[in-house]
Design brief:
The complex is a heterodimer. By secondary structure, chain A is an all-beta fold. Chain A is 3% helix and 42% strand. Helices cover 34% and strands 13% of the residues of chain B. By secondary structure, chain B is α+β, with helices and mostly antiparallel strands. Chain B has helices at residues 5-15, 31-50, 128-144, 201-215, 219-241, and strands at residues 72-75, 82-84, 98-99, 104-107, 120-125, 154-157, 163-167, 175-178, 180-181. Chain B contains 5 helices and 9 strands. The chains are: A mainly beta, B alpha+beta. The A-B interface holds A 1-3, 431, 433-435, 460-466, 502-505, 532, 534-537 and B 14, 16-19, 21-22, 29-33, 215-218, 220-221.
């Protein structure tokens, strides 16, 4: 057709929920809906990976408790996973066999496997959402992990040795912070174990003896009291940030009894959940009542900048903040993707409506997307004994899952949806007839997404295409030297431009990429739209 | 199978890269789709206006009253000059679109009570002006006086185009045969069919595209569509109306 015009869009900017439709005309690369996509650090929007039940090797994964008991905490440790569920703490290196590592009266010099598993188990009554911290020792193989659950004394566990579990040595004990009080939050700061959220002392921060995380009564230990209830703690560089309900403080000079001090950071902004606090990109991010905020350290000593980084998804964050008590908040950082993931799970709803948000740190700040269908009652990321980053989450079905793994949500199709803003192609007054669309799409396997077109902001008085436009089967790239005979498909480009003939006309339109399948992830890099201006009526 | 309103509309929509309609949403079409629907009807009217005597507009089958090939028959009444062209038509909106005034035929054949030798001849068309000048006064005088009337020689057209008149005023019953063409009916439902043979449906679509391209403010495309329409219409007329050998005749035998 004559007189067609080009329009090119690079997918960038992430989910924007806080701009009106006219404002979004200025950011064509952003998304009005970005479910189960993530902003790729290389650019574009990538359909997220799925998750699979945690297992190593050809085994059948099991539930740690043997039943559908909600997972209260997960933590990558050594070459396995520690998880809290019911009234116990479990460890597994294969996902099939879980041992209860909550044991009483373990020898100070360590137990061998049979002795350790033969001891009586601890019953951690009322165990709540768990907090984990690793205390690296000078000679420890995997470090000492300390676990708090809000109802019981912190529990310390350490494992030494390699190979099969039966050849390893186990150390464990309960840590007394103050009497028999339970502790909710733990962190390690400048060689001290820090405990907060202690029963009946919600405004106090306790710190252990220097380099002795199990000792809260010796020389060098102590406690400070804040004028607000503590909801989270996090060590950041040489300061300990104390997140309270309505304020934020920092503890400085912990190793100098004469200069140790609590310095207020913010008196009007608090934290909604300590489980939202993560360190990413040289900063701390946390969920505040007005959004996700960062505590940015600056070069100037003592100068602290607080900033909201979630303005783009403010309506989502507002929903979380207003209903915070109905959600189980869990968060993690996926370092290789520069991602912060926060899940807000309402266990009274089914899995497929459970929600989360993903923030990818790009050079110009966080860019956001959503997850839908991942129920996370606890999640964590960390490095294993081979310094490989591992991600896990648990759910109400009682399984520990390898997060960000596989193509499906544990066998369930992944519904992914990327909706662009409406495009006016520079002039909202001109009618445009769409000719075709070229989609730059990188794939990691054979994929088959579809695209939907809606004209004039979905106006019901405009004829809308009744069906989705098929992008066809997109094969993964086949590169000479890399492609495998009888596995790869000849001709698959690295980032092929898929041409999709379109039809229909309107003054504006948007595109929605949809897939609901068990196929591989793919990345939408950008779009090229060929349209024909068709008058100004 | 006859081309339906939905077929035509969708053919144009597809040519324009627009979203086709379905039988389900046809009635409630909006925007451009409704415009195309309207334009299809306009196009059919344009064709009818350009050439109302195309065969598919015929009011009936020719020769239904053998051996006469007119498709309408009106029986005259002794002493009555004017007759409504379309029986039962209440106004010009429901009248025939066109009548072949050069092909009226009067006969007593098949008239009850008539026997050979019959009257059977063509009626010469006479303009109203000539009739008024040469015949009206005498025929009116006869009607008011002796009422002899006569055998019709001429057919005249009433000024409102709704009636034909016979001159002289008939002295008895005759059957008047002539050829008439209906107005096209506006298409409405998705299954309504056009009267054109399918091979000529592109005349309609070309004209429709002409309107739609105007709507889309593309004069160049509209011009192309208009040229195509004119060419297709010309070919259709040539095929349907002038397929026979042409020759010249001297019809002064009527005088």
């Amino acid at each position: 057709m004559a007189g067609s015009q080009p329009y090119t869009v690079a997918c960038a900017g992430g989910l924007i929920k806080s701009s009106n439709s006219i404002d979004l005309l200025k950011t064509p690369g952003s998304a009005r809906d970005l479910k189960n996509f993530e902003v790729s650090i290389e650019g574009g929007y990538r359909r997220i990976n799925g998750y699979t039940k945690y297992k190593v090797g050809d085994v059948t994964p099991t539930q740690p408790t043997g039943a559908s008991t909600t997972i209260l905490g997960v933590f990558p440790y050594a070459d396995g996973v520690i998880c809290c569920a019911g009234t116990a703490i479990y460890f597994s290196i294969d996902g099939a066999t879980w041992i209860d590592i909550g044991r009483a009266s373990v020898s100070g010099s360590g137990d061998n496997y049979s002795t350790f598993t033969g001891r009586s188990t601890l019953t951690r009554t009322g165990q709540g959402q768990a907090s984990f911290v690793i205390f690296e020792g000078a000679t420890f193989d995997y470090g000492e992990v300390i676990i708090s659950d809000g109802a019981n004394k912190p529990y310390s566990f350490r494992m030494e040795g390699t190979g099969i579990l039966t050849s390893r040595t186990f150390f464990s004990s309960e840590v007394t912070v103050t009497g028999t009080k339970g502790v909710k939050f733990l962190t390690v700061h400048d060689h001290h174990l820090i405990a907060a959220g202690v029963e009946d002392n919600l405004d106090s921060v306790y710190y252990s003896v220097y380099n002795d995380p199990d000792n809260f009564s010796g020389s060098g230990s102590g406690a400070v009291t804040i004028s607000d209830q503590i909801v989270g703690i996090k060590s950041f560089r040489d300061e300990l940030f104390i997140f309270c309900k309505n304020s934020i403080h920092k503890l400085v000079n912990i190793n100098n009894s004469s200069t140790i001090a609590v310095v207020p950071v913010a008196e009007n902004v608090g934290c909604l959940s300590g489980y939202s606090i993560q360190e990413i990109g040289g900063d701390l991010i946390f969920l505040a009542p007005d959004g996700l905020r960062t505590v940015a350290g600056t070069a100037r000593i003592g100068d602290v900048e607080l900033g909201t980084v979630s303005k783009a998804i403010q309506p989502l964050v507002t929903d979380i903040a207003t209903q915070i008590d109905t959600f189980i908040i869990s968060s993690m950082v996926i370092r290789e993707k520069s991602q912060y993931r926060l899940f807000y799970t309402n266990t009274s709803f089914s899995n497929n409506v459970q929600r989360g948000i993903i923030g990818t740190l790009r050079p110009d700040g966080f860019q956001w997307s959503e997850t839908r269908g991942i129920e996370s009652t606890a999640c964590n990321s960390g490095f294993d004994n081979n310094t490989i980053e591992r991600y896990y989450h648990g759910d109400t079905d009682g399984y520990v899952h390898t997060h960000d793994s596989g193509f499906t949500f544990d066998g369930t199709k992944v519904l992914a949806r990327y909706e662009t803003p409406d495009y006016d192609y520079g002039d909202l007054g001109t009618l445009k007839t769409l000719h075709y669309l070229k989609v730059s799409c990188g794939t990691e396997g054979q994929v088959e997404p579809d695209v939907q077109v809606r004209f004039n902001y979905g106006d019901t008085n405009t004829a809308q295409p009744p069906t989705l436009f098929d992008l066809g089967v997109i094969n993964p790239p086949s590169k000479f030297g890399d492609a495998v005979f009888n596995l790869n498909t000849f001709g698959g480009g690295e980032n092929p431009l898929i041409r999709v003939p379109l039809l229909g006309s309107g003054h504006s339109n948007n595109f929605t990429f949809i897939s609901e399948d068990t196929k591989a992830p793919y990345t939408i890099n950008g779009l090229y739209v060929d349209y024909i201006p068709s008058g100004r009526r | 199978m006859a081309t339906t309103y939905l077929d035509l509309t969708n053919e144009v929509l597809r040519e324009l890269n627009e979203i086709p309609l379905t039988s389900a949403n046809f009635t409630n079409a909006v925007g451009l789709q409704q415009f195309v629907k309207d334009a299809v009807n306009k196009s059919i009217f344009d064709i009818a206006n350009a050439e109302p005597q195309l065969p598919f507009f015929s009011a009936g089958l020719s020769g239904s009253t053998d051996p006469f090939y007119g498709n309408v028959t009106v029986a005259s009444v002794a002493g009555q000059r004017w007759y409504t062209l379309k029986s039962g038509s209440s106004s010009i909106t429901t009248d025939y679109a066109s009548v072949d005034w050069d092909d009226f035929y009067v006969t007593t054949i098949n008239v009850s009570g008539e026997s050979a030798p019959h009257v059977s001849k063509g009626l010469k068309f006479m303009t109203l002006a000539d009739w008024k000048r040469y015949y009206r006064d005498a025929e009116n005088a006869d009607d008011a006086d002796s009422q002899n009337y006569g055998e019709p020689q001429f057919v005249i057209k009433s000024p409102d185009s709704r009636k034909f008149g016979l001159s002289p005023i008939p002295d008895k019953v005759y059957n008047v045969h002539f050829y008439a063409f209906d107005k096209p009916t506006k298409l409405s439902a998705h299954g309504d069919t056009i009267t054109l043979p399918e091979q000529y449906s592109n005349v309609i679509t070309a004209r429709t595209r002409y309107y739609v391209w105007q709507f889309k403010e593309s004069p160049q495309q509209a011009s192309f569509a208009l040229d195509e329409y004119k060419k297709e219409l010309r070919q259709m007329k040539s095929n349907l109306m002038n397929p026979t050998p042409k020759y010249m005749t001297d019809d002064r035998r009527y005088f």
